């Protein structure tokens, strides 16, 4: 276990932003993770848990407390059952399941971060979400002071949300268990239209696992969503805003605003999101509100590849990033009456 003081946090995030932590501890076993958490809780010390750092916006002043980097390792594959230690690199875990001929998370290839973060955010992309394959999450319950196993239902998964996200001070994820599918080397049914088009198949078809993974990686790379130290479009947290989910009444009002602003006959993106609700596209809203790819003149700008990613062009501060985010939120609200919600977790700052 490594312990550092007044340690920089920016290098631990994909934004490469944020000030130092009073104390930075890197834990490589579940026991070390639990010991650090218990010590912080007993002393009343603020605790920041860091996995891959791909979903964090840390303030320029840093974090006054203990920052815990979870660097645990462990991959157990028994038939179609997969167990990952929280510190395992997610992209590598996905590659291993594809190599093993197991379907269920192949379209989540290229997503940066650690395995332990996936249930917190209910990570999803290209028609898949981890909630569809997670069976159990093993976590340390800070309130009860013990390790617990939560079933899929107990995780309360929803769109980019979970029990862990709604109560962030309670649980520290230690391990995640998945149930995958042996479909004779084929993927799960392709659910996302863009992926199906790129593969040259129909939605609902299955394709070779490797083809699904490689296609998703190419699609993500084209949007700056695969980490590349030389590409500032990837100095981001991926999608900075979640896609808004609107009630029928809210969507009708939004649709009317679209007609007023963009002209009759222009229809906004609309996807079913449960009874009485419709999901629309945050990227579409940002673009139509006047924030195009590459927008901005300072060190924080919208990605040149995707309007949903806010990026550090190399010399940005967290305040630069937040100023851009606030400008986008205000512009979208003024144009369409919808308030965008940030997807990354903010530490010591807020929009």
Task: Write structural notes for this entry.
This protein is an alpha+beta fold. It is 27% helix and 24% strand. It contains nine helices and 18 strands. The strands form six sheets. Strands 6-7-12-10-11 form a five-stranded antiparallel β-sheet. A four-stranded mixed β-sheet has the order 1-2-5-3, with helices on one face. It has a three-stranded antiparallel β-sheet with strand order 13-15-14. Strand 14 and strand 15 form a beta hairpin. The longest helix is centred in the last third of the chain and has 19 residues.
Offer a few descriptive terms.
globular, 18 strands, alpha+beta, single chain, four-stranded mixed β-sheet, 9 helices, five-stranded antiparallel β-sheet, 351 residues
Write the layout of secondary structure elements.
Blueprint: E1 2-8, E2 20-27, H1 30-43, E3 47-50, E4 56-58, E5 63-70, E6 75-78, E7 81-85, H2 90-99, H3 118-121, E8 124-125, E9 128-129, E10 134-141, E11 146-151, H4 163-166, E12 171-179, H5 193-199, H6 209-222, E13 245-247, H7 248-262, E14 271-272, E15 277-279, H8 282-288, E16 300-302, E17 310-312, H9 318-336, E18 345-347
Parallel strand pairs: 2-5, 3-5, 4-18
Antiparallel strand pairs: 1-2, 6-7, 7-12, 8-9, 10-11, 10-12, 13-15, 14-15, 16-17
């Amino acid at each position: 276990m490594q312990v550092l003081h007044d340690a920089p946090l920016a290098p631990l995030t994909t934004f490469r932003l944020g000030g130092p932590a009073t104390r930075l501890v890197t834990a490589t076993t579940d026991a070390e993770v639990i010991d650090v958490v218990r010590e912080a809780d007993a002393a009343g010390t603020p605790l920041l848990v860091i996995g891959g750092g791909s979903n964090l916006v840390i303030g320029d002043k840093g974090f006054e407390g203990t920052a815990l980097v979870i660097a645990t390792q462990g991959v157990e594959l028994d038939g179609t059952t997969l167990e990952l230690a929280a510190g395992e690199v997610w992209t590598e875990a996905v590659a291993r399941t594809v190599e093993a001929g197991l379907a269920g998370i192949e379209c989540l290839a290229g997503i940066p971060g650690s395995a332990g973060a996936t249930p917190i955010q209910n990570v999803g992309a290209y028609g898949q979400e981890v909630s569809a394959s997670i069976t159990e999450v093993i976590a340390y319950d800070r309130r009860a002071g013990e390790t617990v196993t939560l079933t899929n239902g107990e995780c309360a998964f929803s769109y980019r949300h979970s029990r862990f996200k709604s109560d962030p001070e309670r649980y520290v994820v230690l391990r995640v268990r998945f149930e995958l599918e042996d479909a004779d080397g084929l993927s799960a049914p392709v659910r996302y239209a863009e992926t199906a088009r790129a593969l040259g198949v129909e939605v609902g078809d299955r394709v070779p696992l490797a083809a699904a993974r490689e296609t998703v990686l190419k699609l993500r790379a084209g949007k700056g969503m695969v980490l590349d130290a030389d590409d500032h479009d990837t100095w981001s947290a991926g999608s900075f805003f979640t896609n808004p989910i609107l009630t029928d009444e809210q969507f009708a009002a939004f649709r009317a605003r679209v007609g007023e602003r963009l002209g009759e006959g222009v229809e906004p993106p609309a996807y079913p999101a449960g009874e009485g609700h419709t999901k629309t596209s945050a990227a579409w809203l940002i673009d139509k509100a006047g924030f195009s790819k590459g927008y901005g003149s300072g060190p924080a700008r919208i990605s040149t590849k995707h309007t949903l990613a806010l990026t550090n062009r190399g010399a940005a501060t967290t305040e630069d990033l937040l100023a851009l985010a606030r400008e986008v939120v205000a512009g979208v609200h003024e144009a369409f009456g919808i308030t965008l919600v940030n997807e990354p977790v903010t530490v010591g700052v807020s929009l």
